[in-house]
Automatic annotation (TrEMBL):
SUPFAM superfamilies with a match to the protein in the record: GroES-like, NAD(P)-binding Rossmann-fold domains
NCBIfam families registered for this protein in UniProt: oxido_YhdH (TIGR02823)
Coiled coil: none
Domain Enoyl reductase (ER): 22-312
Name the UniProt record assigns to this protein: Alcohol dehydrogenase
Gene3D superfamilies: Medium-chain alcohol dehydrogenases, catalytic domain, NAD(P)-binding Rossmann-like Domain
Family annotation (CDD domains): MDR_yhdh_yhfp
Organism: Liquorilactobacillus mali KCTC 3596 = DSM 20444
InterPro entries from the UniProt entry: Acrylyl-CoA_reductase_AcuI, ADH-like_C, ADH-like_N, ER, GroES-like_sf, NAD(P)-bd_dom_sf, Zn-ADH-like_protein
A GO molecular function held by the record: acryloyl-CoA reductase (NADPH) activity
Length: 339
């Protein structure tokens, strides 16, 4: 049974309150969005999208008030859908969760059964949320280049490697024993910190060119930032190369030319982890929990639910190349998994 009152984090905005405000609040099950499965949440995570939910005019939250948190995992405690039984562990990412449907930064969630993925009892829930939406996006990106023929000796470039998706992409590629991984970073300090880890470490300026088409450097590119970074990369992609794009932190606009596409036949593939079919999600999570298991390959910091606003306000310093997991029962505030 659900406790009569339970803790949650609420973000709100209105005509009388034009700036986004957040508060810890006790609510009832009746305050949650509709669904046929109630989950007692064990862990959620904080992604960049979640951070944007606390900012004005970010466009992430579609209606207020809202419980943010675009993913969560936990245990089914009530269900009217025969697909699930009480006591099963489940995972939810994407769809409208934390956007227009009450999300994961709460002690309980209620969602449609078709949004949930069943987890085996032996799967560590902390690790599942250390991956979260970023892990699913990373797996979809790697799966795309592998499906187009990426092999161990392929020349692969990853952008945004200090972020959640990019760091997990790199971990998966290393798990697959890819030999020629290069990365693109933002500044010289990052270049120095990564110089012994990858084949090449580029700054964007290294790839800036006035040429419409440049020397063929990369067979595959996993781009996690978009915008001007993607613009700089495209002229360097090899014949029949494949570029995946899953982020827009470097900008929503893409100013490029046709030559890499019509002279080299390169392919630009968009990656969506929000609205893909459940069957595809289940396949990717099966990969992440078995053949592509990277548990321990990256740093994870765990914070209690009432510290979410602190983490959001200090995002750059707190995250610091780590994945941020929220322990909803408020029993942990330590780094549990480290590189």
């Amino acid at each position: 049974m659900v406790d009569k009152l339970f803790k949650t984090l609420i973000v709100n905005k209105s005509e009388d309150m034009p700036k986004v405000q957040s508060e810890m609040k006790k609510i009832t099950l009746a305050d949650l969005s509709e669904g046929d499965v109630v989950v007692k949440i064990a862990y959620s995570s904080l992604n960049y999208k979640d951070v944007l939910a606390f900012q004005n005019n970010s466009g992430v939250i579609r209606k207020y008030p809202m419980i943010p948190g675009v993913d969560f995992c936990g245990t089914v405690i009530e269900t009217s859908n025969p697909r699930f039984t009480t006591g099963e562990n489940v995972l939810c990412t994407g769809y409208d969760v934390g956007v227009s449907h009450t999300g994961g930064l709460s002690e309980y969630a209620r969602v449609p059964a078709e949004w949930l993925i069943r987890l085996d009892k032996n799967v560590p829930l902390e690790y599942v949320m250390a991956l979260g939406t970023a892990g699913l996006t990373a797996a979809l990106s790697v799966n795309e280049i592998v499906s187009f023929g990426a092999k161990r000796d392929s020349e692969i470039l990853v952008t945004g490697v200090t972020g959640g998706v990019g760091s997990i992409v790199v971990a998966i590629l290393k798990k697959l024993k890819m030999r020629n991984i290069s990365v693109l970073v933002r500044n010289k300090d990052q270049r120095h910190s990564y110089c012994n880890e990858f084949k090449n470490v580029y700054l964007r300026d290294d790839l800036e060119t006035k040429k419409l088409i440049a020397h063929q450097k990369f067979d595959y590119v996993v781009d996690c930032v978009g915008g001007t970074v993607l613009e700089a990369v495209l002229p360097w992609v090899s014949y029949k190369g494949v570029v995946t794009v899953c982020g827009n932190i470097a900008g929503n606009q893409l100013k490029t030319n046709m030559l890499p596409f019509i002279l080299r036949g390169i392919r630009l593939m968009g990656i969506d982890s929000v609205n893909i079919k459940l069957e595809e999600k289940e396949k990717m999570w099966q990969q992440l929990l078995t053949d592509w298991n990277i548990n321990g390959a990256f740093s994870v910091r765990i914070f209690p639910l009432d510290k979410v606003k602190y983490v959001v306000d200090n995002w750059v310093e707190v995250r610091n190349k780590s994945r941020i997991v929220i322990s909803v029962p408020d029993t942990k505030n330590v780094e549990k998994i480290s590189r």
